[in-house]
Each structure stands twice: as structure tokens, then as C-alpha cells.
Amino acid sequence: xxEDRRQFVWARPGGERERADSPAGRNAVxxxxxxxxxxxxxxSDARGDRPPRVxxxxxGATGREAARxxxxxxxxxxxxxxxxxxxxxxxxARGPVGVxxxxxxxxxxxxxxxxxxxxxxxxxxxxxxxxxxxxxxAPSVADGLVYAAAADGTVVALxxxxxxxxxxxxxxxxxxxxxxxxxxxxxxxxxxxRVTALHAEDGTRAGSFRNxxxxxxxxxxxGDRLFLAGLDGGAYAHDRxxxxxxxxxxxxxxxxxxxxxEGETAYVGTVDGGRIRAVSAVTxxxxxxxxxxxxxxxxxxxxxxxxVAGSADGAVxxxxxxxxxxxxxxxxxxxxxxxxxxxxxxAIVGNEAGVVYAIDVETGAVEWRHRPxxxxxxxxxxxxxxxxxxxxxxxxxxxxxxxx
Length: 404
What we know:
Helix content is 0%, strand content 44%. By secondary structure, the protein is mostly beta strands. It starts with 8 loop residues before the first strand and ends with a strand.
């Protein structure tokens, strides 16, 4: 073990201690999730609004890789050019898709509901395809590897150029959150409130702990804290070294998006009650709250002194970060389930009608709007002046950010 790897001694349920690199659970048998799973949880907000429901892949995944050369795209998901000057390419997968991008090699990495992780070239052709088990969440790209997690509990590290597996870890439980990578550690979480940390270089276990939530649906890391969203209620902060809970807020309100931390403040959106809250990232003490028109399902975005968040009432809100005062709002006309992504002063957000908006964060002016497909239920990714957005039906569109 290299000496610079983070060391953990996290408590197991019942008080038993687990040390770094323990083999416990490494050979656990994954289980396949059953039943419909909405992409943003199964709690409703005060108005009864619910996101579109998603049926996970069926038939049982084998975990075997199926490398697909670019010219084989016609046998399954396909990428194609468009006559629209804003659209650089469109790619069709099967079912909802989570998107990550890497500006260095201009690749796009997808986690798909059909149980596959995929890499696309800048022209939309398929570089590789790897089969995992169950719905695959949006990958994370860090330290020269692509990390992906599947609903059946499988976590993998993949070579970004070839899709070759560097390591595989079976958590033995359904995963809903992650992977999130920080300081050489990969974090994943899911049902039962279990958080698992793995050494990023070789996939060995660094530790695990159990959160109070029934299910964890989102993770974020900032400094020495790990921030969690509890599907059955609450946002939490845990110490990354020992796993201890530092604080929790909104325990009676479903939280689907991970807290967004900027400086010493964490910003939390709640589904029940439709609120955006600012709390101390250190103590959890509330600083202000803002009542949106309906449930806030996704993480707020923070740029400078502005907080941007969408709501199930169809509005995008911009708030003053210090005091929560409303600066502007844009009514998109359809419910918003995904976080806004901010790049170069522009907020990119899609709604249930399938319309993607580019909004000037400073003024609230709509720079452009585009309807590439069906309902947008996942955050976009932005790299090299290209916006990658996926819809509920599995279509991924690469849009030029600068075409007006």
C-alpha cells in the first residue's frame, strides 16, 4: 500500500471496527434490483409531483465486457450528425443516460439504464462499450481512469481509451449514489444507508459506515467532509476520516440532490415543501431558506454569490447566496428534475418537456433554448464549448454552447 493513501477506521453497525483494506465484503454476491425505480427517488413533494419513472434493465447482467468498435454502432446505440447548426451529433442509447465528459481527450462517457457504460468520440462514434449489472449511473473521470457504478452493486475502474477493466468491486447491495472520487478515494452509497470507500488505484476497500437514512441517493465531497442526501429524509455531513455524522438537516423532508458546498456554506434543496436552504457546512446551522413553488429535486448550483436551482413548478430560480433573496426567475413551463450546470457564466438546465435552456446567470436573460428530445432528467455536462445533454428516452445530444 502506498503511504499517501487515505487511511480509514470506520465503525460498522454494532460497534465493530473495520480497518483499511479489509477484505470484508469483497466477494459479496450482488443482488439485482427489482421493480420500477424513478430516476430521482420515490417520494413526492407537497404537490404530489413525481418525476418520470424508469424501468431498470432486466434479464440479469453477467458483468462481461462487450467491446464495440466505432463501426459497429449500427448494431445497437448509434451516433449521427445533424443538419441543425447547434447539434454536433446525436447518439441513441436504450433508456435514460447519465453523462460525464473529459475535456482532455474530448471523450464523452455514459452510464446507461440498459446496464452498459459507453465512451463516445468527439464525432459521436462509439469508442467502447462495457457491460455491467443493472442501471449504470453517470461515471466519474479522475486521475486517468473512468469510474462507474451499477445498480446491482458493482463498481469498476475503466481505461478511458479502451474500456479495459482495471479493477472491479462488488458491494453486495443496490447502489444509488456515486461514484464520487476525491483524494484517491472512490465513494459509493445506496440502500440501507451504507457508504463504501475504495482505494481508487486498485479498488481495495478503504472502509464503510452506515448512515441513518434508509437509502442514500447522492454524494458530494468537500474538504474533510462527505455530504449525503437521504431519500427518506435529510441531508447529512460525515467526517471522511472516521465516518462520524457531524450534522443533519431537514430530517423530515426527502432530499434527492447532494448538498452543494461553497466556502463555509452548504446549499440543500428539499422535495417536501419545495425549499432551498443554506446551512453552515461546519455545523449544519441554518442561515436562510427560500420557498420555491414546488419540490426541489436536484442539487443547487453555486457560482460566485449566486445560487441557481430548478423546481418542479417549472421555474429556474437565482438567489443571492449570502441572504437567499430572489434575483430572478425564469418560467420554463415544465417541471425540472435535474441540476443546472454553470459554465462561463451560463446556466444550462433542461425540463420535463425536453427543452434545454441556456441562461445568463448575472441577468437571467435566456441566451438560447433548444429541444433535442424527450424529458431531461439528468444534469448536462459541458466541455470544450459543447453541452452534452441526455433525455429520458436515451438520446444524447452534443450541442454547441456558443451558437445563438
